[in-house]
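ok posting inputs for the protoporphyrin IX containing FE job
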Amino acid sequence: MIRRPRIPVPEDFTAPSHSPLVAARLGLWLGVAFGLCFGTGLLSHFIQHPPGWFTWPTRPVNLYRITQGVHVLSGVAAIPLLLAKLWSVYPRLFVRPPLRQPIRLSAHALERLSVLVLVCAAFFELVTGLFNVAQSYPWGFFFPTAHYAVAWLVAGAILLHVAVKLPIARAALSTPLRGSRAVAAAAPGRDDSSERRAFLRTSVGVAGIAVLATAGVTVPWLRRASPLAWRSAAGPQGIPINRTAAAARIVVPPDWRLEIVWPGGRETLSLAELAALPQHTAELPIACVEGWSASAHWTGVPVVQLLRWAGAPTGRPVRFTSLETDGLYAASTLPAAHASDPLTLLALRINGEQLSPDHGYPCRLVAPSRPGVLQTKWVARLEVLR
Amino acid sequence: MRAVRLLLLVLGASAVGYGGWLLLPQLGTALPWLIGGPVLHDVLVAPLVGVVGLMLSRLVTNRLRLAWVTAGLLASATLLLIAVPLLWRPPSAPPNPGLPDRNYPLGLAVGLAVVWAAIVIVLVVVAMVDRRVTNRRTDRP
Ligand code: HEM
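and the output
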Protein backbone atom coordinates (compact mmCIF):
# COMPACT_ATOMS: atom_id res chain seq x y z
CA MET A 1 0.00 0.00 0.00
CA ILE A 2 1.38 3.37 -0.99
CA ARG A 3 0.11 6.39 0.84
CA ARG A 4 0.64 9.77 -0.65
CA PRO A 5 2.30 12.09 1.82
CA ARG A 6 -0.02 14.75 3.10
CA ILE A 7 -0.12 17.31 5.87
CA PRO A 8 -1.25 15.48 9.00
CA VAL A 9 -4.48 16.23 10.83
CA PRO A 10 -4.83 16.21 14.62
CA GLU A 11 -6.46 12.77 14.55
CA ASP A 12 -3.26 11.27 13.13
CA PHE A 13 -1.54 11.72 16.49
CA THR A 14 -2.67 8.86 18.68
CA ALA A 15 -0.18 8.92 21.57
CA PRO A 16 -1.94 9.33 24.94
CA SER A 17 0.22 12.35 25.83
CA HIS A 18 -1.62 14.39 23.16
CA SER A 19 -4.60 15.07 25.37
CA PRO A 20 -6.17 18.05 27.10
CA LEU A 21 -5.79 16.06 30.34
CA VAL A 22 -2.02 16.38 29.93
CA ALA A 23 -1.96 19.83 28.29
CA ALA A 24 -4.01 21.43 31.06
CA ARG A 25 -1.83 20.00 33.83
CA LEU A 26 1.38 21.04 32.12
CA GLY A 27 -0.23 24.42 31.44
CA LEU A 28 -0.97 24.84 35.12
CA TRP A 29 2.66 24.14 36.09
CA LEU A 30 3.93 26.39 33.31
CA GLY A 31 1.60 29.06 34.62
CA VAL A 32 3.17 28.70 38.06
CA ALA A 33 6.73 28.78 36.66
CA PHE A 34 6.11 31.78 34.42
CA GLY A 35 4.10 33.47 37.18
CA LEU A 36 7.06 33.19 39.57
CA CYS A 37 9.37 34.48 36.83
CA PHE A 38 7.10 37.43 36.11
CA GLY A 39 6.58 38.40 39.76
CA THR A 40 10.24 38.21 40.75
CA GLY A 41 11.28 39.83 37.46
CA LEU A 42 8.98 42.79 38.12
CA LEU A 43 10.48 43.14 41.61
CA SER A 44 13.99 43.17 40.19
CA HIS A 45 12.95 45.72 37.58
CA PHE A 46 11.39 48.00 40.20
CA ILE A 47 14.43 47.72 42.47
CA GLN A 48 16.61 48.94 39.61
CA HIS A 49 14.14 51.53 38.29
CA PRO A 50 12.03 52.37 41.34
CA PRO A 51 8.71 54.11 40.69
CA GLY A 52 7.71 56.61 43.37
CA TRP A 53 5.38 54.24 45.22
CA PHE A 54 7.87 51.38 45.43
CA THR A 55 9.90 50.49 48.51
CA TRP A 56 12.07 47.44 48.98
CA PRO A 57 12.97 46.17 52.47
CA THR A 58 16.60 45.88 53.59
CA ARG A 59 15.91 42.69 55.58
CA PRO A 60 16.35 39.82 55.37
CA VAL A 61 19.74 40.67 53.90
CA ASN A 62 19.32 37.73 51.49
CA LEU A 63 15.91 38.86 50.20
CA TYR A 64 17.05 39.88 46.71
CA ARG A 65 19.28 36.84 46.54
CA ILE A 66 16.19 34.68 47.13
CA THR A 67 13.83 36.48 44.75
CA GLN A 68 16.36 36.52 41.94
CA GLY A 69 17.33 32.90 42.59
CA VAL A 70 13.65 31.98 42.29
CA HIS A 71 13.45 33.99 39.07
CA VAL A 72 16.32 32.22 37.38
CA LEU A 73 15.51 28.72 38.64
CA SER A 74 11.81 28.86 37.78
CA GLY A 75 12.92 29.92 34.31
CA VAL A 76 15.18 26.87 34.11
CA ALA A 77 12.32 24.64 35.27
CA ALA A 78 10.08 26.13 32.59
CA ILE A 79 12.36 24.92 29.78
CA PRO A 80 11.42 21.21 29.94
CA LEU A 81 7.84 22.08 30.95
CA LEU A 82 7.41 24.29 27.86
CA LEU A 83 8.81 21.59 25.58
CA ALA A 84 6.57 18.96 27.16
CA LYS A 85 3.53 21.20 26.80
CA LEU A 86 4.27 21.91 23.15
CA TRP A 87 4.73 18.20 22.53
CA SER A 88 1.39 17.51 24.14
CA VAL A 89 -0.45 20.08 22.00
CA TYR A 90 1.58 19.61 18.81
CA PRO A 91 -1.38 18.00 16.94
CA ARG A 92 -3.33 21.23 17.47
CA LEU A 93 -0.91 22.89 15.06
CA PHE A 94 -2.67 21.01 12.27
CA VAL A 95 -6.25 21.98 13.10
CA ARG A 96 -7.82 23.12 9.82
CA PRO A 97 -9.36 26.59 9.90
CA PRO A 98 -13.19 26.72 9.45
CA LEU A 99 -12.87 28.34 6.04
CA ARG A 100 -16.55 28.54 5.17
CA GLN A 101 -17.74 30.25 8.35
CA PRO A 102 -16.42 33.83 8.42
CA ILE A 103 -17.25 34.54 12.06
CA ARG A 104 -15.73 31.33 13.37
CA LEU A 105 -12.81 31.82 11.01
CA SER A 106 -11.97 35.22 12.42
CA ALA A 107 -12.25 33.92 16.00
CA HIS A 108 -9.98 31.04 15.01
CA ALA A 109 -7.47 33.45 13.46
CA LEU A 110 -7.43 35.65 16.56
CA GLU A 111 -6.91 32.64 18.82
CA ARG A 112 -4.09 31.40 16.61
CA LEU A 113 -2.49 34.83 16.71
CA SER A 114 -2.62 34.92 20.51
CA VAL A 115 -1.10 31.43 20.71
CA LEU A 116 1.65 32.51 18.29
CA VAL A 117 2.46 35.51 20.49
CA LEU A 118 2.44 33.24 23.55
CA VAL A 119 4.83 30.66 22.13
CA CYS A 120 7.16 33.25 20.52
CA ALA A 121 7.34 35.25 23.72
CA ALA A 122 7.76 32.20 25.99
CA PHE A 123 10.68 30.87 23.92
CA PHE A 124 12.20 34.35 23.72
CA GLU A 125 12.20 34.82 27.49
CA LEU A 126 13.74 31.42 28.21
CA VAL A 127 16.39 31.62 25.49
CA THR A 128 17.48 35.21 26.16
CA GLY A 129 17.44 34.61 29.91
CA LEU A 130 19.63 31.55 29.52
CA PHE A 131 22.17 33.40 27.38
CA ASN A 132 22.14 36.31 29.80
CA VAL A 133 23.14 34.17 32.76
CA ALA A 134 26.21 33.23 30.73
CA GLN A 135 26.63 36.98 30.03
CA SER A 136 26.53 36.23 26.33
CA TYR A 137 24.55 38.53 24.05
CA PRO A 138 24.54 37.22 20.46
CA TRP A 139 21.83 39.66 19.30
CA GLY A 140 21.29 43.27 18.34
CA PHE A 141 18.78 44.36 20.99
CA PHE A 142 19.49 45.60 24.53
CA PHE A 143 18.76 42.61 26.74
CA PRO A 144 17.23 44.19 29.89
CA THR A 145 14.62 46.29 28.08
CA ALA A 146 13.72 43.58 25.54
CA HIS A 147 13.45 40.86 28.22
CA TYR A 148 11.25 43.18 30.27
CA ALA A 149 8.98 44.11 27.35
CA VAL A 150 8.53 40.49 26.25
CA ALA A 151 7.77 39.50 29.85
CA TRP A 152 4.59 41.61 29.54
CA LEU A 153 3.83 39.85 26.25
CA VAL A 154 4.12 36.43 27.92
CA ALA A 155 2.06 37.45 30.94
CA GLY A 156 -0.69 38.95 28.79
CA ALA A 157 -0.69 36.07 26.31
CA ILE A 158 -0.98 33.53 29.15
CA LEU A 159 -4.04 35.38 30.48
CA LEU A 160 -5.56 35.42 26.97
CA HIS A 161 -4.75 31.74 26.56
CA VAL A 162 -6.39 30.85 29.86
CA ALA A 163 -9.42 32.96 28.93
CA VAL A 164 -9.78 30.94 25.72
CA LYS A 165 -9.04 27.51 27.23
CA LEU A 166 -10.78 27.92 30.59
CA PRO A 167 -13.71 25.55 29.87
CA ILE A 168 -11.46 22.80 28.46
CA ALA A 169 -8.90 23.34 31.21
CA ARG A 170 -11.49 23.13 33.99
CA ALA A 171 -13.01 20.00 32.56
CA ALA A 172 -9.56 18.45 32.11
CA LEU A 173 -8.31 19.36 35.56
CA SER A 174 -11.39 17.95 37.25
CA THR A 175 -11.04 14.66 35.38
CA PRO A 176 -8.75 12.36 37.34
CA LEU A 177 -5.79 11.04 35.38
CA ARG A 178 -6.11 7.56 36.79
CA GLY A 179 -8.60 6.03 34.40
CA SER A 180 -11.44 3.98 35.84
CA ARG A 181 -11.18 0.21 35.68
CA ALA A 182 -14.14 0.07 33.34
CA VAL A 183 -12.28 2.20 30.78
CA ALA A 184 -9.14 0.11 31.16
CA ALA A 185 -11.13 -3.09 30.73
CA ALA A 186 -12.86 -1.73 27.63
CA ALA A 187 -9.53 -1.17 25.88
CA PRO A 188 -7.20 -3.92 27.01
CA GLY A 189 -3.56 -3.88 25.96
CA ARG A 190 -3.37 -0.15 26.03
CA ASP A 191 -3.27 1.89 29.20
CA ASP A 192 -3.62 5.55 28.21
CA SER A 193 -3.95 6.80 31.74
CA SER A 194 -0.74 5.24 32.97
CA GLU A 195 1.11 6.55 29.91
CA ARG A 196 -0.22 10.04 30.59
CA ARG A 197 0.85 9.85 34.18
CA ALA A 198 4.28 8.62 33.12
CA PHE A 199 4.59 11.52 30.67
CA LEU A 200 3.66 14.08 33.33
CA ARG A 201 5.92 12.47 35.91
CA THR A 202 8.82 12.51 33.46
CA SER A 203 8.21 16.18 32.63
CA VAL A 204 8.23 17.20 36.27
CA GLY A 205 11.18 14.95 37.01
CA VAL A 206 13.21 16.48 34.20
CA ALA A 207 12.27 19.98 35.42
CA GLY A 208 13.56 18.95 38.84
CA ILE A 209 16.80 17.64 37.36
CA ALA A 210 17.27 20.89 35.43
CA VAL A 211 16.83 22.90 38.63
CA LEU A 212 19.20 20.65 40.60
CA ALA A 213 21.77 20.90 37.82
CA THR A 214 21.87 24.70 38.06
CA ALA A 215 20.70 25.69 41.56
CA GLY A 216 24.28 25.66 42.86
CA VAL A 217 24.75 29.17 41.48
CA THR A 218 22.87 30.48 44.45
CA VAL A 219 22.05 27.67 46.93
CA PRO A 220 25.21 27.21 49.03
CA TRP A 221 24.72 23.52 49.86
CA LEU A 222 24.23 22.65 46.18
CA ARG A 223 27.45 24.38 45.07
CA ARG A 224 29.26 21.12 44.49
CA ALA A 225 26.24 19.11 43.37
CA SER A 226 25.16 21.31 40.44
CA PRO A 227 27.25 20.41 37.40
CA LEU A 228 25.83 23.18 35.21
CA ALA A 229 25.87 26.08 37.66
CA TRP A 230 27.20 28.92 35.50
CA ARG A 231 29.28 30.51 38.26
CA SER A 232 31.36 29.12 41.05
CA ALA A 233 31.21 30.77 44.45
CA ALA A 234 34.96 31.06 44.53
CA GLY A 235 37.08 33.81 43.12
CA PRO A 236 39.86 36.12 44.12
CA GLN A 237 39.38 36.93 47.82
CA GLY A 238 36.48 34.46 47.96
CA ILE A 239 33.97 36.09 45.58
CA PRO A 240 33.69 35.92 41.78
CA ILE A 241 34.19 39.12 39.79
CA ASN A 242 31.82 40.31 37.09
CA ARG A 243 33.57 43.45 35.94
CA THR A 244 37.30 43.80 36.31
CA ALA A 245 39.11 47.07 36.98
CA ALA A 246 40.78 46.72 33.59
CA ALA A 247 37.44 46.26 31.80
CA ALA A 248 36.11 49.35 33.56
CA ARG A 249 39.39 51.21 32.79
CA ILE A 250 39.89 52.23 36.38
CA VAL A 251 42.88 54.29 37.35
CA VAL A 252 42.94 55.26 41.01
CA PRO A 253 44.65 58.65 41.27
CA PRO A 254 47.44 58.78 43.86
CA ASP A 255 45.71 61.69 45.57
CA TRP A 256 42.35 59.87 45.68
CA ARG A 257 39.93 61.33 48.21
CA LEU A 258 36.36 60.32 48.86
CA GLU A 259 34.02 63.22 48.30
CA ILE A 260 30.78 63.58 50.26
CA VAL A 261 28.40 66.30 49.16
CA TRP A 262 24.97 67.29 50.39
CA PRO A 263 22.76 70.30 49.85
CA GLY A 264 24.76 73.06 51.49
CA GLY A 265 27.92 71.12 52.42
CA ARG A 266 30.94 69.14 51.28
CA GLU A 267 33.60 67.00 52.94
CA THR A 268 36.49 64.90 51.67
CA LEU A 269 38.55 62.09 53.21
CA SER A 270 41.69 60.22 52.24
CA LEU A 271 41.76 56.43 52.38
CA ALA A 272 43.83 56.60 55.59
CA GLU A 273 41.23 58.85 57.20
CA LEU A 274 38.47 56.51 56.08
CA ALA A 275 40.33 53.53 57.55
CA ALA A 276 40.81 55.40 60.82
CA LEU A 277 37.05 55.74 61.36
CA PRO A 278 35.33 53.01 63.44
CA GLN A 279 35.07 49.89 61.23
CA HIS A 280 32.27 47.34 61.19
CA THR A 281 32.16 43.86 59.70
CA ALA A 282 29.02 42.36 58.19
CA GLU A 283 28.30 39.16 56.28
CA LEU A 284 26.44 40.27 53.15
CA PRO A 285 25.81 38.61 49.79
CA ILE A 286 26.69 39.81 46.35
CA ALA A 287 23.48 38.77 44.57
CA CYS A 288 23.69 39.26 40.86
CA VAL A 289 20.78 39.79 38.48
CA GLU A 290 22.10 36.69 36.68
CA GLY A 291 20.99 34.66 39.67
CA TRP A 292 24.37 33.70 41.08
CA SER A 293 25.17 34.84 44.55
CA ALA A 294 27.80 34.41 47.21
CA SER A 295 28.38 35.81 50.67
CA ALA A 296 31.49 37.45 52.08
CA HIS A 297 32.56 39.22 55.26
CA TRP A 298 32.90 42.88 54.41
CA THR A 299 34.63 45.41 56.65
CA GLY A 300 34.23 49.16 56.34
CA VAL A 301 32.46 52.25 57.56
CA PRO A 302 28.66 52.10 57.83
CA VAL A 303 27.35 54.68 55.37
CA VAL A 304 25.00 56.18 57.96
CA GLN A 305 27.89 56.74 60.39
CA LEU A 306 30.05 58.19 57.64
CA LEU A 307 27.33 60.71 56.82
CA ARG A 308 26.92 61.58 60.50
CA TRP A 309 30.68 62.02 60.88
CA ALA A 310 30.70 64.39 57.90
CA GLY A 311 27.74 66.30 59.29
CA ALA A 312 25.55 65.39 56.33
CA PRO A 313 21.83 64.73 56.71
CA THR A 314 20.75 61.06 57.00
CA GLY A 315 17.50 59.28 56.19
CA ARG A 316 17.70 60.35 52.55
CA PRO A 317 18.67 58.59 49.33
CA VAL A 318 22.37 58.75 48.49
CA ARG A 319 23.88 58.68 45.01
CA PHE A 320 27.16 56.74 44.70
CA THR A 321 29.43 57.59 41.80
CA SER A 322 32.29 55.42 40.67
CA LEU A 323 35.71 56.26 39.26
CA GLU A 324 34.36 54.50 36.18
CA THR A 325 33.66 57.19 33.60
CA ASP A 326 31.24 55.36 31.36
CA GLY A 327 29.15 52.23 31.55
CA LEU A 328 25.64 51.64 32.75
CA TYR A 329 26.59 50.97 36.32
CA ALA A 330 29.02 53.82 36.96
CA ALA A 331 26.58 55.24 39.50
CA SER A 332 23.68 54.01 41.62
CA THR A 333 21.17 55.57 43.94
CA LEU A 334 20.84 54.00 47.36
CA PRO A 335 17.25 54.37 48.63
CA ALA A 336 16.78 56.07 51.99
CA ALA A 337 15.92 52.78 53.72
CA HIS A 338 19.21 51.20 52.65
CA ALA A 339 21.22 54.38 53.32
CA SER A 340 19.94 54.36 56.91
CA ASP A 341 20.55 50.66 57.53
CA PRO A 342 23.52 50.14 59.88
CA LEU A 343 24.61 47.13 57.80
CA THR A 344 25.13 49.21 54.65
CA LEU A 345 28.88 49.62 54.37
CA LEU A 346 31.36 51.60 52.42
CA ALA A 347 33.63 48.57 52.45
CA LEU A 348 37.42 48.72 52.47
CA ARG A 349 38.09 45.04 53.14
CA ILE A 350 36.70 41.70 52.03
CA ASN A 351 37.15 38.49 54.04
CA GLY A 352 39.87 40.19 56.08
CA GLU A 353 41.94 41.48 53.15
CA GLN A 354 42.14 44.89 51.56
CA LEU A 355 39.82 45.05 48.51
CA SER A 356 41.70 44.08 45.37
CA PRO A 357 41.38 46.45 42.38
CA ASP A 358 38.85 44.07 40.77
CA HIS A 359 36.71 44.09 43.92
CA GLY A 360 36.57 47.90 43.96
CA TYR A 361 39.71 49.29 45.63
CA PRO A 362 39.83 51.80 47.27
CA CYS A 363 36.26 51.32 48.50
CA ARG A 364 32.92 49.95 47.38
CA LEU A 365 29.29 50.01 48.41
CA VAL A 366 27.81 46.85 49.96
CA ALA A 367 24.19 47.06 51.08
CA PRO A 368 21.81 44.31 52.21
CA SER A 369 19.13 42.96 49.86
CA ARG A 370 20.25 44.65 46.64
CA PRO A 371 21.25 43.51 43.14
CA GLY A 372 25.00 43.23 42.64
CA VAL A 373 25.02 45.69 39.73
CA LEU A 374 23.95 48.42 42.16
CA GLN A 375 26.75 47.68 44.66
CA THR A 376 28.95 50.36 43.12
CA LYS A 377 32.70 49.65 43.07
CA TRP A 378 35.63 52.14 42.97
CA VAL A 379 33.50 54.73 44.76
CA ALA A 380 34.64 58.33 44.31
CA ARG A 381 31.69 60.36 45.49
CA LEU A 382 28.62 60.21 47.72
CA GLU A 383 25.88 62.71 47.10
CA VAL A 384 23.05 63.00 49.60
CA LEU A 385 19.90 63.73 47.62
CA ARG A 386 16.90 65.69 48.82
CA MET B 1 -17.20 31.79 34.32
CA ARG B 2 -18.15 34.26 31.57
CA ALA B 3 -17.16 37.20 33.74
CA VAL B 4 -13.85 35.59 34.67
CA ARG B 5 -13.04 34.87 31.04
CA LEU B 6 -13.94 38.40 30.03
CA LEU B 7 -11.74 39.84 32.78
CA LEU B 8 -8.83 37.61 31.73
CA LEU B 9 -9.37 38.68 28.14
CA VAL B 10 -9.26 42.39 28.97
CA LEU B 11 -6.28 42.08 31.33
CA GLY B 12 -4.41 39.86 28.90
CA ALA B 13 -5.01 42.11 25.91
CA SER B 14 -3.87 45.17 27.89
CA ALA B 15 -0.69 43.45 29.06
CA VAL B 16 0.09 42.27 25.53
CA GLY B 17 -0.53 45.79 24.26
CA TYR B 18 1.76 47.29 26.90
CA GLY B 19 4.51 44.75 26.18
CA GLY B 20 4.21 45.35 22.45
CA TRP B 21 4.47 49.10 22.99
CA LEU B 22 7.56 48.64 25.17
CA LEU B 23 9.13 46.36 22.58
CA LEU B 24 8.37 48.58 19.60
CA PRO B 25 11.74 50.42 19.48
CA GLN B 26 13.60 47.09 19.40
CA LEU B 27 11.10 45.06 17.41
CA GLY B 28 13.33 44.87 14.33
CA THR B 29 16.27 43.27 16.10
CA ALA B 30 14.12 41.13 18.41
CA LEU B 31 11.85 39.70 15.71
CA PRO B 32 14.15 36.90 14.50
CA TRP B 33 14.63 35.77 18.10
CA LEU B 34 10.87 35.84 18.68
CA ILE B 35 9.96 33.85 15.58
CA GLY B 36 12.99 31.55 15.75
CA GLY B 37 11.80 29.49 18.73
CA PRO B 38 8.43 28.27 17.41
CA VAL B 39 9.72 27.81 13.84
CA LEU B 40 12.67 25.72 14.97
CA HIS B 41 10.44 23.75 17.31
CA ASP B 42 7.52 23.10 15.01
CA VAL B 43 9.48 22.39 11.85
CA LEU B 44 12.53 20.63 13.23
CA VAL B 45 12.47 19.62 16.88
CA ALA B 46 8.97 18.19 17.23
CA PRO B 47 9.11 16.00 14.06
CA LEU B 48 12.59 14.82 15.05
CA VAL B 49 11.40 13.91 18.55
CA GLY B 50 8.47 12.06 16.97
CA VAL B 51 10.72 10.02 14.69
CA VAL B 52 13.17 9.19 17.50
CA GLY B 53 10.21 8.19 19.68
CA LEU B 54 8.83 5.86 17.01
CA MET B 55 12.21 4.20 16.44
CA LEU B 56 12.74 3.84 20.16
CA SER B 57 9.37 2.18 20.67
CA ARG B 58 10.35 -0.40 18.01
CA LEU B 59 13.70 -1.03 19.67
CA VAL B 60 12.51 -1.22 23.28
CA THR B 61 9.32 -3.22 23.57
CA ASN B 62 9.03 -3.44 27.35
CA ARG B 63 6.86 -0.46 28.42
CA LEU B 64 8.54 0.21 31.73
CA ARG B 65 11.99 0.04 30.18
CA LEU B 66 10.87 2.33 27.37
CA ALA B 67 9.56 4.88 29.85
CA TRP B 68 12.88 5.03 31.70
CA VAL B 69 14.99 5.24 28.55
CA THR B 70 12.72 8.05 27.30
CA ALA B 71 13.12 9.87 30.61
CA GLY B 72 16.90 9.57 30.30
CA LEU B 73 16.87 10.96 26.78
CA LEU B 74 14.62 13.88 27.75
CA ALA B 75 16.76 14.72 30.77
CA SER B 76 19.90 14.58 28.61
CA ALA B 77 18.35 16.84 25.96
CA THR B 78 17.38 19.36 28.64
CA LEU B 79 20.85 19.38 30.18
CA LEU B 80 22.32 19.87 26.70
CA LEU B 81 20.01 22.82 26.04
CA ILE B 82 20.91 24.47 29.33
CA ALA B 83 24.59 24.00 28.55
CA VAL B 84 24.45 25.64 25.09
CA PRO B 85 25.18 29.23 26.22
CA LEU B 86 27.95 27.95 28.49
CA LEU B 87 29.68 25.90 25.79
CA TRP B 88 29.10 28.21 22.84
CA ARG B 89 30.02 31.85 23.25
CA PRO B 90 29.44 33.67 19.97
CA PRO B 91 32.12 36.26 19.20
CA SER B 92 29.73 39.09 20.01
CA ALA B 93 29.88 38.16 23.68
CA PRO B 94 32.05 40.74 25.46
CA PRO B 95 35.36 39.39 26.68
CA ASN B 96 34.99 39.01 30.40
CA PRO B 97 37.98 37.39 32.05
CA GLY B 98 36.17 37.03 35.36
CA LEU B 99 33.20 35.19 33.98
CA PRO B 100 33.58 31.65 32.63
CA ASP B 101 35.06 30.28 35.82
CA ARG B 102 33.98 26.66 35.70
CA ASN B 103 34.75 23.70 33.47
CA TYR B 104 31.44 23.50 31.60
CA PRO B 105 32.18 20.55 29.26
CA LEU B 106 33.20 18.55 32.32
CA GLY B 107 30.05 19.68 34.15
CA LEU B 108 27.86 18.58 31.27
CA ALA B 109 29.65 15.22 31.00
CA VAL B 110 29.24 14.63 34.75
CA GLY B 111 25.54 15.57 34.60
CA LEU B 112 24.87 13.20 31.71
CA ALA B 113 26.89 10.42 33.35
CA VAL B 114 24.90 10.74 36.59
CA VAL B 115 21.57 10.68 34.72
CA TRP B 116 22.50 7.55 32.75
CA ALA B 117 24.03 5.80 35.74
CA ALA B 118 20.73 6.31 37.57
CA ILE B 119 18.74 5.03 34.57
CA VAL B 120 20.95 1.93 34.26
CA ILE B 121 20.53 1.17 37.97
CA VAL B 122 16.76 1.51 37.66
CA LEU B 123 16.69 -0.75 34.58
CA VAL B 124 18.75 -3.42 36.34
CA VAL B 125 16.47 -3.33 39.38
CA VAL B 126 13.40 -3.52 37.13
CA ALA B 127 14.85 -6.54 35.32
CA MET B 128 15.64 -8.28 38.62
CA VAL B 129 12.15 -7.69 40.01
CA ASP B 130 10.68 -8.94 36.72
CA ARG B 131 12.70 -12.15 36.86
CA ARG B 132 11.79 -12.81 40.48
CA VAL B 133 8.08 -12.32 39.72
CA THR B 134 8.16 -14.66 36.71
CA ASN B 135 10.22 -17.23 38.68
CA ARG B 136 7.71 -17.23 41.49
CA ARG B 137 4.89 -17.68 39.01
CA THR B 138 6.58 -20.59 37.22
CA ASP B 139 7.66 -22.17 40.55
CA ARG B 140 4.09 -22.61 41.57
CA PRO B 141 2.93 -26.20 41.32
C1 HEM C 1 3.70 29.65 29.00
C2 HEM C 1 2.57 29.07 29.18
C3 HEM C 1 1.81 28.27 28.13
C4 HEM C 1 2.13 27.95 26.83
C5 HEM C 1 3.37 28.33 26.04
C6 HEM C 1 1.03 27.18 26.29
C7 HEM C 1 0.96 26.70 24.99
C8 HEM C 1 -0.16 26.09 24.44
C9 HEM C 1 -0.37 25.80 23.05
C10 HEM C 1 0.61 26.16 21.93
C11 HEM C 1 -1.57 25.18 22.92
C12 HEM C 1 -2.23 24.71 21.63
C13 HEM C 1 -3.19 25.79 21.23
C14 HEM C 1 -4.31 25.30 20.37
O1 HEM C 1 -5.18 24.62 20.93
O2 HEM C 1 -4.30 25.62 19.19
C15 HEM C 1 -2.12 25.03 24.24
C16 HEM C 1 -3.34 24.41 24.54
C17 HEM C 1 -3.89 24.33 25.81
N1 HEM C 1 -3.40 24.92 26.96
FE1 HEM C 1 -1.69 25.98 27.10
N2 HEM C 1 0.08 27.02 27.29
C18 HEM C 1 0.51 27.68 28.41
C19 HEM C 1 -0.14 27.82 29.61
C20 HEM C 1 -1.36 27.23 29.91
C21 HEM C 1 -2.09 27.43 31.14
C22 HEM C 1 -1.67 28.35 32.28
C23 HEM C 1 -3.21 26.65 31.05
C24 HEM C 1 -4.31 26.54 32.11
C25 HEM C 1 -4.37 25.62 32.96
C26 HEM C 1 -3.19 25.97 29.77
C27 HEM C 1 -4.16 25.08 29.29
C28 HEM C 1 -4.28 24.63 27.99
C29 HEM C 1 -5.34 23.80 27.49
C30 HEM C 1 -6.50 23.24 28.30
C31 HEM C 1 -5.11 23.61 26.12
C32 HEM C 1 -5.97 22.82 25.13
C33 HEM C 1 -5.42 21.48 24.84
C34 HEM C 1 -6.27 20.75 23.81
O3 HEM C 1 -7.30 21.29 23.38
O4 HEM C 1 -5.85 19.65 23.43
N3 HEM C 1 -2.06 26.35 29.10
N4 HEM C 1 -1.26 25.62 25.16
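notes: The CA atoms of residues 35 and 96 of chain B lie 30 Å apart. The pocket of protoporphyrin IX containing FE is lined by residues A 20, 23-24, 27-28, 30-31, 34, 82, 85-86, 89, 92, 115, 118-119, 122, 158, 161-162, 165, 168-169, 172 (CB under 6 Å).
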